[in-house]
Specification:
By secondary structure, the protein is of the alpha/beta class. It has helices at 7-17, 30-36, 56-64, 69-74, 83-95, 109-117, 129-143, 154-170, 185-197, 213-220, 243-252, 261-275, 281-293, 313-320; strands spanning 26-28, 41-45, 76-79, 99-103, 121-124, 146-147, 176-180, 202-208, 255-259, 301-305.
Amino acid sequence: MPLPVSYDDILAARDRLRPFFETSPVRHYPLLDGLAGHGIRVLVKHENHLPTGSFKVRNGTASITALTSEQAELGVIAATTGNHGLGLAWAGAARGVSVTICVPKGNNPEKNAGIRSFGATLIEVGDRYDETVVACRAIAEQEHRTIVHSTNHRPVIAGAGTMMAEFLDQAPELDAVVIALGGGSQAVGAMAVTSAVKPEVQLFAVQSEGATAQHDGWQDGHMRANEPVHTFAEGIATGSSYELTFDALRTGLTDFVLASDRRIAQGVRDLWTITHNLAEGSGAAGLAGLRLLAPRLAGKTVGIVLCGGNLDAARAAEILAGRTPEA
């Protein structure tokens, strides 16, 4: 399998992360078992309980702690729809490293406020994420900052892999894990862990029907770039494939499914009702994917990752009232 990071890279990242935050909990909710049906036992990895409410704080902290002294002095920059920026800003504040975050115009206002709260400079540029990435590169060149790409950056992938290292420590009985997929850092990090520790674990990915670039590339072997996205789940609203994760996803995933925004919104409601945790769209995608895959996973212990809980108040009210937000 063409993995961009090794298990040793992930263990090294895990050691760097230990001083900054505790292991996120894994919990079992019998009502989720009943919802999935087919005799499945569902375990939830609560990445929403980490600082900044998302697994992306792993990626940001792993990246900040991997900088050389010269890179740390000049600072870092990233393009994001929110969670990657939050994680990087938090880690920068913890280590005294200057952080600039570029977000698309009209980005989640609560995520923007959170990024600023950690002392990062926030720049709203581009009408969609892929345009924001281009602007971010230009600013990085002008200011000599290190770009920490949300996916195409090895320390990011190693940081994301620490989630699965923890998960298998906490639940060695796992048979399969369903992971929401945007850029693919979490899925590919998980592959590096399972291939070394428990190769029989099946890894499934789920993406929104309104943002299928990664799924389509996985199906036909052709990388995508700047494709349109129409989903309220901004954490997986990805219109491109990425060099460091593309080949690994094609060879390492057991399957890759698409869930409608209606199913993802229902996942938000179900997680709130059953676990009393508010998931953002990407955070509920794992449950939506599990329900699609359930007949294939009969009788297995299946992990889902509540990868983020940063749903803005307006969308939360809309979803909990039984509606599906517009993209």
